[in-house]
Design brief:
The chain is about 70% helix and about 10% strand. With about 200 residues, it is α+β, with helices and mostly antiparallel strands. The protein has a four-stranded mixed beta sheet with strand order 2-1-3-4.
Length: about 200
């Protein structure tokens, strides 16, 4: 073999080897590119998923805030109505005809009595709870329940109506102000439940 042929053979072999290496590099690059594209697609999917979740979370947060605001506005409106109703109820109770008022006080006193020998404290401005009313309650309590209620030596400020039964240090407040406040608290608890159930 001549030198020229040897050189051509070496060059051909080198060219073939170079082509083989180049093809291997291209295949490796294509495989790496495919792997990178797959990872990128995965990252894009994760990003879309995170964006969707964040958007849904934000939407849920905004909806919850809007619901809470509406519920608070409803509660404020209900409280306003409640204020008006209790103001009207207080005025109506204080404006009851004497006989009707006295009948209610007799029933309330009979319900509140525990021993029958309590002192009755009345409001400074209440002249309708008088000795006749006390005698009627004592008569209805009868001998089995002592029936020995008596007026306390001093009157008190009870908000215009009602009474307190006092026995030693124990006091049972049956003033209309306290009864209305208790009823109001019970209704406000119901309104609060309504706020958080919606």
């Amino acid at each position: 073999m001549e030198a020229q042929q040897v050189i051509e053979k070496i060059l051909a072999d080198a060219g073939a080897e170079a082509e083989k290496i180049l093809n291997q590099a291209r295949e490796k690059q294509a495989a790496e590119q495919a792997q990178a594209d797959e990872k990128l697609a995965g990252y894009n999917e994760q990003t879309r998923s995170l964006v969707d979740k964040a958007a849904n979370d934000e939407k849920a947060h905004l909806l919850a805030a809007a619901r809470m605001k509406i519920a608070k506005e409803r509660l404020a409106e209900k409280r306003k109505i409640l204020d008006e109703l209790f103001d009207q109820a207080r005025a109506r109770l204080q404006g009851l005809a004497d006989e009707e008022y006295r009948g209610i006080m007799v029933r309330r006193m009979l319900e509140a009595v525990e021993t029958g020998d309590e002192e009755v404290v009345v409001d400074r401005s209440d002249s309708r709870i008088d000795m006749d009313l006390l005698k009627e309650v004592n008569r209805q309590l009868g001998p089995g329940f002592k029936g020995n209620l008596r007026f306390a030596s001093a009157k008190d400020d009870l908000g215009g109506a009602g009474f307190i039964l006092k026995r030693g240090k124990i006091k049972t407040n049956v003033s209309l102000a306290v009864l209305l406040d208790q009823a109001r608290k019970e209704l406000e608890i119901e309104l609060a439940k309504d706020l958080f159930e919606d």
